Amino acid sequence: MAADSGTLDPPSIVSASKNPPLEILTLRYGGFPISHRDALAWANRVRAANGLRLLTDAPHDSGSIMGTLNHVVEAAGGVKCNPHGRIEAGKPYEKYIIITQYEVGEWLSVNGVVEPSAYLVEGETETIGKELLRREGIAHEPFTSCFTYY
Question: Which long-range contacts (CB under 8 A, 24 or more apart) does 53-60 make?
Fold first, then answer.
């Protein structure tokens, strides 16, 4: 009950909805998501050409797939390769993202939503990523912006 009025206090969920969860995200990057299958095949082409052990679908090889593609993307003038999408323990990465833009800063997330104006837009640097993927014959998803913590 409220102190002097004799009425019940409003439920806590009402006060929580007036103050939505806020997060300060400190890293944004953009690039082209590709499937695990395509990333594995590409990494194995690179590794075979360099006399390295071929990788498998085993979860412990996910980091090596990413590392191999990091070298290729960086050498071509891109930023790097990261896992993309849900990461589950004991399973290989679902997808990878060929990163073409990367920036440290601060962006506000309210209820898990970042203001649309904060999203990266596809520009000249994406030419590198697109050309790299085209040469490899890899279909990619549209340019995507991601936000996380640094």
Answer: 57/92, 58/92, 59/90, 59/91, 59/92
User: In this predicted model, what pLDDT tens digit does every residue of 83-98 receive, in sequence order?
Assistant: 998 889 999 999 999 9
SS (H, E, C) the chain: CCCCCCCCCCCHHHHHHHCCCEEEEEEEEEEEEEEHHHHHHHHHHHHHHCCCCCCCCCHHHHHHHHHHHHHHHHHHCCCEEEEECCCCCCCCCCEEEEEEEEEEEEEEEECCEECHHHCCCCCCCHHHHHHHHHHHCCCCCCCEEEEECC
Q: pLDDT tens digits, residue range 13-59?
A: 334 456 778 999 999 999 999 999 999 999 999 999 999 999 999 99
